[in-house]
Amino acid sequence: MARTTSTEAEASFAELFTPKLITVLREGYGLTQLRADAIAGLTVAIVALPLSMAIAIASGATPAQGLYTAIVGGFLVSALGGSRFQIGGPAGAFIVLVAATVAQHGMDGLILATFLSGLMLSAVGLLRLGTFVKFIPFPVTVGFTAGIAVIIFASQIRELFGLKLDHEPAELLEKLPALWEARHTLTPAAVAVSAGTVAVILALRRYRPGWPGMLIAVALAAAATALLGLPIATIGSKFGGIPSTLPAPQLPDLSPARVAEVLPNAVSFTLLGAIESLLSAVVADGMTGRRHRSNCELVAQGIANVGSALFGGICVTGTIARTATNVRAGAHGPVAGMLHAVFLLLFMLVAAPLASFIPLAALAGVLAVVAWNMIERHAIAALARTGWGEFAVLAATFLLTVFRDLTDAIVTGVALGAILFIHRMSRTTEVTAQTPIVPRDEPDDAHPREEYHEEAADPDIIVYRVTGALFFGAAASIGSVLDRIQDNHRALILDLSGVPFLDSTGASMIESLVRKARKRDVQVFISGARRDVRRGLLAIGLDRHTVRFAGDVDSALAALRKPRQAA
């Protein structure tokens, strides 16, 4: 086998982390492609404008921070990422974690956690661990997405109904009673604005799907609020509007004590950011037939989070809805995402004063629609039909997301999914005796006629065939069957040709079986073992002095025949 030279390794590494922007430019980029990307970028910016502000407000940040995140983070994700069509920015999935971090550590703690998360995401990508993020079970992603949707909707009830609370609890079980107690403060104008916003979005989605429904709905709500003088909260009344320029970059407080405080939050951001961004990239791949570079994408997501934090923004990740919009709008490559960030910046420079008139009830209506769209109803129904196992994983993840926290939900869901997988894999592994010790009476035509082996029919020789992965989940049950070898057998042939994988537990079980057999003076042959299976057996302590290897059962039988012929 030829050795890989250092030059080849470096080339492979460089190719693995080459941004898709470079790939697209190498393919040839002209005015036609730029025009397509400009139209797509403008379309996505129109969608991202209300969403970025709404998500930031729901997260406990300011609408300006949402725009900073979309502008800085979105530009860096597209410029440096491993996906042609990924759109980065603030995401609804982060609302729960961001709001909790702000409540625990303040805004400076959130910015520091975002900064640290960026460093971690880049490290995960550079260590090429992005592939393992794809191993998150589908029921887990469906469960935590549905749970986040419930929490997002619950967080918007206050603004949807214009309720007045001195303090809104963060926990759902405490939040709902507090909101109910404040029901007498309901503002009819807020209800009308939020309901009208939802109605306009849904109507345009049905009758004019190509129109920017969210932006039109928010613009109409802002116009109605200003013209009618409605007594409801707006961005101007609560936040004083949004600035017309980006702030100067500034490093967060990196003192060891402060870093230690927010480190668990940063880890949660990293885990969710990796999952969300790669899921979004996979969706884009499915829509376009392209393939993204997962580790390059994670490095870009990390740099984008560092950049967002430097400009006072919040967490950045790949956003599925905006990425899908980018694809449908005819984007050619990453330039569309970069232009989407430029268009958002132009909005801040030119139309920032108009944002003061946007009612919070309208943004709450936008998020209510987003929450509804996040619940994958068809996937939930499909998982319910597949059996109790997947649905139990989904339900556990959903309930822990809603009533505990997202990190515990994902960890528990993955653990349950792994246990379910181990259980099912263990049931696919079985051991059969090719020549039963006491064959049962059957009709002559019960089985097709096979080649007759005198030695195979010899009661002194027993042939066992193992099929399936021989790993720790199946080792105990398989070992109990193989241990039934009686003392009156002079030879055991263990056929492992149907074993695709063997771990140290399975190898140890085989080694123990061979040791017991040798104590009884039973000769052991292992036939059909693949190279990696044989390597595992040799590594655990088996050698040719205790066991003999054969290419197949016939070869093992032939080897057993020779001593008898010599005698």
List the helices and strands and how they pair.
Blueprint: H1 6-16, H2 20-27, H3 31-58, H4 63-80, E1 88-89, H5 95-126, H6 130-133, H7 138-161, H8 172-181, H9 188-207, H10 213-228, H11 235-239, H12 256-288, H13 294-310, E2 317-318, H14 320-328, H15 335-351, H16 360-374, H17 377-386, H18 388-403, H19 406-428, E3 430-433, H20 454-457, E4 461-467, H21 472-482, E5 491-498, H22 504-519, E6 523-527, H23 531-540, E7 548-550, H24 553-566
Helix pairs in contact: 3-4, 3-10, 3-14, 3-15, 3-16, 4-13, 4-15, 5-12, 5-13, 7-8, 7-16, 7-18, 7-19, 9-10, 9-16, 12-13, 12-14, 17-18, 18-19, 19-21, 21-22, 22-23
Mean pLDDT: 84
Largest sheet: 5 strands, mixed
Total number of domains: 2
Query: Terminal Cα separation, in Å?
Result: 44 Å
Give the total of beta strands: 7
Multimerization state = single chain
Which outline best applies? elongated
Structural class computed from helices and strand pairing: mainly alpha
Tally of individual helices: 24
Low-confidence stretches: 1-11, 436-440, 449-456
User: Which band does the percent of strand residues land in?
Assistant: 5-15%
Question: Rg to the nearest angstrom?
Answer: 31 Å
Fraction of helical residues: 55-70%
Q: Strand order, biggest sheet?
A: 3-4-5-6-7
